[in-house]
UniProtKB/TrEMBL annotation:
InterPro entries: HTH_MarR-typ (IPR000835), Tscrpt_reg_MarR-type_CS (IPR023187), WH-like_DNA-bd_sf (IPR036388), WH_DNA-bd_sf (IPR036390)
Organism in which the protein naturally occurs: Brevibacillus centrosporus
Name of protein: DNA-binding transcriptional regulator, MarR family
Keywords annotated in UniProt: DNA-binding, Transcription, Transcription regulation
Occurrences of domain HTH marR-type (ranges): 7-139
Pfam family, one: MarR
Molecular function, one GO term: DNA-binding transcription factor activity
Database matches in PROSITE patterns: HTH_MARR_1, HTH_MARR_2
Amino acid sequence: MNDYWQDESIGFLMGKTYRKIVMHVTTYLREFDLTPEQFSVLFCLSKQEGINQKELAIRTTKDQPTITRILDALAKKGFIEKKLSETDRRAYLLMLSDKGREWIELATPAEAKAISEVVDGMSEEELQILRQALIRIAENVNRHTKE
């Protein structure tokens, strides 16, 4: 255990890196009045509108209280609309408003620029290895997490 240093721990490094990435992306999204969490939800909706809140939470890996808070903020800003489902009167389908479509088109290049700065200097091969490693880690977490 004496050889174990927190600074070298995979968990510590991933958490530290995640927080730094979020702070960096936040600076780029601030001008669009979006947080990284809100951006990820808007971006997901831009790729598949008309899904319900539960499906959106699954796709964005957010729990129900978090997705509710984000959707409330996005609705208040006029970025999304909720439409009653024709098949389930208790459920709402989520759509981007015209303003939401406009803002996601403006914000996506800014978010992409922030991410490109984060991976600056990495080769395509290194990026592919990183993607594969992150996917495997996520799969391992899913496999070992008890619900």
